[in-house]
Each structure stands twice: as structure tokens, then as C-alpha cells.
User: Which sequence fits this backbone?
């Protein structure tokens, strides 16, 4: 970063008041959504505003839980210095609660809302796994087939099969151990392309986005397309999702949150853009078996078994974890200026979603190792709504 750019960043941060004291010569105006002294407002004081979406009938017990959870989440956002995030809870395939916390854009003071869109990073993987398992159910893909049958050729000892890509067990001796590998998972693009003759982007749109009418969800545009979307001249199918996209931020030591940039990759491993409301719709469709049969969904949510019979922390496109007799199905996302989380408790009919416009929901915590409860956000949801 050049000296001039650094000075500009310092001045900008001081102006919005996020990190007072960096310079005394600049007056600071507090931003309502994420100023340092902004008081927290509970959901029930904001009903009817764009920041909150609430079910029509909420029990007293749920109202208490929601109040407890949102206080925990707002404290966590401030502790991790996240500019903004959006959260949602789904119960029995219906939205119970959704709200934004902090800012979608610091400079303008635009608040995060349930309709704000975010880069999902690896929360793209459950979508990709769903499409692939649809092809399996149609007899177009064989999970036991060598990936070489789908045009993937790796210099590797042992035979890598489709199931190994989907379960993060393709590294080392295939099937021997779990090791998270986004690049390996991304090879599923070739499996789908060879099996169906269409790119993942096209399959995703025709099989999930359009049938569910997910208008706030889109594949990340490649670099030449970004300018068109910024000008409002992108694909009309996806322009609204782009317009609602939260500004990306890096937390830079000595400067605070500065504007960053999102990756432009899109594929099976990452790159989808969505809102918590759209993801909640996808989640409910999964639970209703509109996208996959019960058998296929059970397969996705069953821990992969290693060559030696050991249950691993990942199924097909999802992490799987048991705690105190409760099964948690989950995934996290972590990439440049973005971090995301989904937690499902199928036996309770519960889903929790949290999307942020910085990497701080995930970057401090080794979630790739397969332990959901390294995430303080996951613990907050667990302690309030589950256990």
C-alpha cells in the first residue's frame, strides 16, 4: 500500500468514526448503523423497518431467545470489528427471524439488512453438492467412478473417485483421511460439465435458482462483467442481487476496516452471491425434499467413512458433527473480505445463517478442521436455541 493511499485510508476511517483518535484534525460524524457509540436496538423495537424480518406469530419463549441471541451477535460483531452482517433463523421450513447488524457500507451508513447480499465463499459447496447429487439420482454421475472418466487427470497414487472430491478425501491415499481442499472440490465442475454438457453456472440457474425464484442469488461475475454490473447494465436476471451486495472490508492493523475487493472466481467450490433470505429458501427446499430425495439428502449428511472404517467430519458438501446426541449439519465460508456460516439441526427443524462483509467470522478460527464450536457465533446459537 502506497504512503498516499495509507494516509487516505486513515483519514477515511477517522471521518466515519470507527476508530477515533487516529487523527485529531478531522471532525467525525457518527454513523447510525455502525458508529462506535451506537446503542444496540433489539428486534422488537425495529419491527416494520428494513433491518428486521419477523414471523407473524412469535412465542414469548422465542422472543426471549431472539433477544438473547441478537445481543450476543452484536457484541461479537463489535469484538471482531466486523462492519456488518446479516442473520436468519429458519424453523420447520419457515423463516422465524432475520435481521441486519451494523453496516453494509460504512461511508454511506447503509445498514445491513436481511436483503443485503454477500459473497458466500464455501457456502457455495452445498449448492454444488445438491446439483451433483441430482445428477447421481438421474444416473448421469457415478460417485464410485474414477474422476478420469470425467476428464480429470491427476498425477496421483491410487484412484481418485468422484466421492473423494465431494468429501475432501482425495489428497494422499484417496479415501484414507479427511483434508479440506477447496481446489479439489472445485474439480466437480468438470464432473458436471462432462456428465451433462453444461457449466455449473448454467446447471445451478436452471435447477435451483430459477425453480426457487432466488432473485437475490447470483454467480460471481468474472472480471470483464463487473464493470457492467457496477453501471447497472449487467444480466437483468442478476442485477438486483449485485446492487444489494455489501461493500467488502479488510481489517488492517493500525488503520481499521478499509475497503477491499471480492474474488471474481465462480465454481463448485466458491463464488456464489446471496442473501440470508434466499439461502433460507434454499434450505427449506432441501428440507422439503424439493431438490433431493430423502435418500440423497441422508447421503449428503452422513459422515464419509475412511478406508479403515473411521467416520470423518465431512459428508458430501456438508460438515457433520454430533454433540450431546444432537446432530449438527453445517458449513462455513472464508475468503477475501467475506465469511459465512450455516448451522442445521435437522431433528429440531432449525437452521441458523450468518453472512458478513469481512473475513472475521471465520479467519480467527480453524473451522476447516471440522469442529463447528470453534466458532463463537455457532456457540451463541447453540447456547440460545439448541442446548
Assistant:
Amino acid at each position: 500500500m502506497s504512503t498516499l493511499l495509507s494516509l487516505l485510508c486513515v483519514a477515511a476511517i477517522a471521518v466515519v468514526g470507527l476508530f477515533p483518535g487516529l487523527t485529531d484534525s478531522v471532525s467525525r460524524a457518527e454513523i447510525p448503523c455502525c458508529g462506535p457509540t451506537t446503542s444496540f436496538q433489539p428486534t422488537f423495537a425495529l419491527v416494520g423497518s428494513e433491518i428486521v424480518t419477523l414471523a407473524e406469530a412469535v412465542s414469548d419463549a422465542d422472543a426471549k431467545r431472539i433477544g438473547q441471541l441478537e445481543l450476543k451477535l452484536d457484541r461479537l460483531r463489535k469484538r471482531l470489528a466486523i462492519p456488518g452482517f446479516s442473520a436468519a433463523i429458519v424453523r420447520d421450513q419457515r423463516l422465524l427471524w432475520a435481521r441486519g447488524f451494523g453496516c453494509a457500507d460504512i461511508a454511506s451508513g447503509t445498514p445491513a439488512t436481511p436483503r443485503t447480499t454477500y459473497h458466500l465463499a464455501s457456502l457455495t459447496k452445498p449448492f454444488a453438492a445438491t446439483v451433483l447429487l441430482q445428477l447421481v439420482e438421474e444416473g448421469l454421475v457415478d460417485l464410485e467412478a474414477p474422476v478420469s472418466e470425467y476428464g480429470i487427470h491427476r498425477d496421483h497414487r491410487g484412484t481418485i473417485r468422484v466421492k473423494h472430491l465431494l468429501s475432501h478425501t482425495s489428497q494422499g491415499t484417496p479415501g484414507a483421511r479427511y483434508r479440506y481442499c477447496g481446489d479439489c472440490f472445485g474439480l466437480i465442475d468438470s464432473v458436471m460439465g462432462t456428465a451433462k454438457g453444461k457449466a455449473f453456472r448454467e446447471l445451478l440457474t436452471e435447477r435451483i435458482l430459477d425453480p426457487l425464484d432466488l432473485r437475490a442469488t447470483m454467480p460471481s461475475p468474472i472480471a470483464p462483467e463487473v464493470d457492467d454490473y457496477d453501471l447497472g447494465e449487467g444480466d437483468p436476471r442478476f442485477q438486483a442481487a449485485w446492487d444489494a451486495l455489501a461493500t467488502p472490508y479488510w481489517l488492517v492493523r493500525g488503520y481499521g476496516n478499509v475497503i477491499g475487493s471480492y474474488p471474481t472466481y465462480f465454481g463448485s467450490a466458491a463464488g456464489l452471491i446471496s442473501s440470508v433470505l434466499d439461502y433460507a429458501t434454499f434450505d427449506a427446499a432441501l428440507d422439503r425434499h424439493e431438490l433431493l430425495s430423502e435418500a440423497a439428502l441422508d447421503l449428503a449428511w452422513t459422515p464419509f467413512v475412511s478406508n479403515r472404517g473411521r467416520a470423518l467430519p465431512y459428508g458430501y458438501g456438508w460438515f457433520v458433527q454430533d454433540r450431546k446426541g444432537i446432530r449438527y449439519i453445517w458449513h462455513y465460508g472464508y475468503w477475501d473480505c467475506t465469511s459465512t456460516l450455516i448451522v442445521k439441526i435437522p431433528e429440531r427443524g432449525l437452521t441458523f445463517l450468518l453472512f458478513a462483509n469481512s473475513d472475521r467470522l471465520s479467519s480467527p478460527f480453524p473451522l476447516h478442521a471440522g469442529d463447528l464450536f470453534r466458532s463463537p457465533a455457532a456457540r451463541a446459537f447453540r447456547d440460545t436455541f439448541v442446548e
